[in-house]
Amino acid sequence: MERTIQKKLPVGGGSWVTVDVYGEPGAPGLVVVPGALSDAHAWRHVATALDAWPSVAVVNRRGRAPSGPLTDAYSLRTEVEDLGVVLDGFADTEALLGWSYGGLIALLAADVRPLRHVVAYEPVMRPFAAHVLPDLKAAEEAGDWDVTVETVHRRIAGADAAHVDALRADPQAWETMRRLSRPAHAELAALNAALPPDGTARRAGRVDLIVGELNRGKAPYGTTFEDVRRRTPGAGVHVLPGQGHMAHAEAPAELARLLNGLAVAAR
């Protein structure tokens, strides 16, 4: 399906979020919540490959253009409240998908309001990568987004220098990551400031958790995935073969195929 409209929603505190809608505007569908160093545009290939819903609405969370600023009062609770505004604006939502930080946001939203179906791909939760917070803060204060991107890839994701050099070799892609890295410190600080929940998605009709095969049981994404899984009893667990954390960018068709199957199973 193709993108049809972009919707702007005020979320209070002088900020707003935009939502890219694919398919039939107003039809029941899927809402997608990306995580850090990602935006709605990064999920376009997944959105266009999905066919299990008549519409797919991809949230551009605050802190990334054309959505509004994080604001001084930003926290994980802010993200959950923002998502509530989006879900109010898409009242016929059939399913909610969150990736990484967005996965935790989706699961927490389903703990405070009833939702039919929630899917989370490698959701993260506290404690997560708190050791890099001082370096991310220093890079933010210096406006050094090259250091921010490299810190995320090297010291959180565990990529080697050759991988980062390969990313730098594509100037357009590197500049996109620099732009998307600006909220990185605030988002990671908010994640680690929030107490781990006793449970998640307790008001969801069905919950499916996805982990990439390459990360299963491995730090940091596989281990934090297990922390979330333990707090989400009754959730189905699915492994995406041959993939890691970036499946939406590296294997969008395979991820969409899995999501389409989960949609069928949930009906």
TrEMBL record:
Keywords: Hydrolase
Cellular component, GO annotation: membrane
Gene3D superfamilies, per the entry: alpha/beta hydrolase (3.40.50.1820)
A single MF term (Gene Ontology): hydrolase activity
InterPro entries, sorted: AB_hydrolase_1 (IPR000073), AB_hydrolase_fold (IPR029058), AB_hydrolase_sf (IPR050266)
Domain AB hydrolase-1 per the UniProt entry, residue ranges: 30-257
PANTHER family noted in UniProt: HYDROLASE, PUTATIVE (AFU_ORTHOLOGUE AFUA_2G14860)-RELATED (PTHR43798:SF33), MONOACYLGLYCEROL LIPASE (PTHR43798)
This protein's name: Hydrolase
